Amino acid sequence: MEYSHEIVNNVLLLRLTGDLIGENHGPELISIINDTINDDVIFCAIDIQNVRYINSSGIGVLITILTKFRNKGGEVVLIKPSESVEKLLIITKLNSIFTLVPNLDIAFKELVKS
Predict the structure, then answer these.
(1) This prediction's pTM
(2) What total number of domains does the chain contain?
(3) What's 26's domain CATH number?
(4) What are 49-82's pLDDT values in tens digits?
(5) If pLDDT is split at 50, 70 and 90, which confidence band does 24 have?
(6) pLDDT grade, residue 85 (50/70/90)?
């Protein structure tokens, strides 16, 4: 998996590509999240449109990210999951705890409402 991150409009924008297998990059992502929250950024948009596969550790990473932001009064949205990833989110009922949005513009609008 490859990833990039930047702060845009006081929102952490995390772009993931490839397979989200938590044990490979999970600790790095959590470190970025911790640094971001320590800088008082409490909103996160995770672009997962180019993620092909998520394993159970990857799901754990997403839940950890969500928990960390919500514990600080923030929120996380997932941008445009692929069809296979969206099916996984539905099967695991994670679509009921994550907000799924079709694009970055709507992600920012959802986060501003939070």
Answers:
(1) 0.94
(2) 1
(3) 3.30.750.24
(4) 999 999 999 999 999 999 999 999 999 999 999 9
(5) confident
(6) very high
Domain span at residue 28 reads 2-113
Instruction: Show the tokens assigned to 5.
Output: 């991150």
Instruction: Give just the sign of the alpha carbon dihedral 94, 97, 102, 104.
Output: negative
d(CA 110, CA 67): 17
One-letter-per-residue 3-state SS of the chain: CEEEEEEECCEEEEEEEEEECHHHHHHHHHHHHHHHHHCCCCEEEEEEEEEEEECHHHHHHHHHHHHHHHHCCCEEEEECCCHHHHHHHHHCCHHHCCEEECCHHHHHHHHHHC
Name the pairing type of β-strands 75-79 and 99-101. Answer: parallel
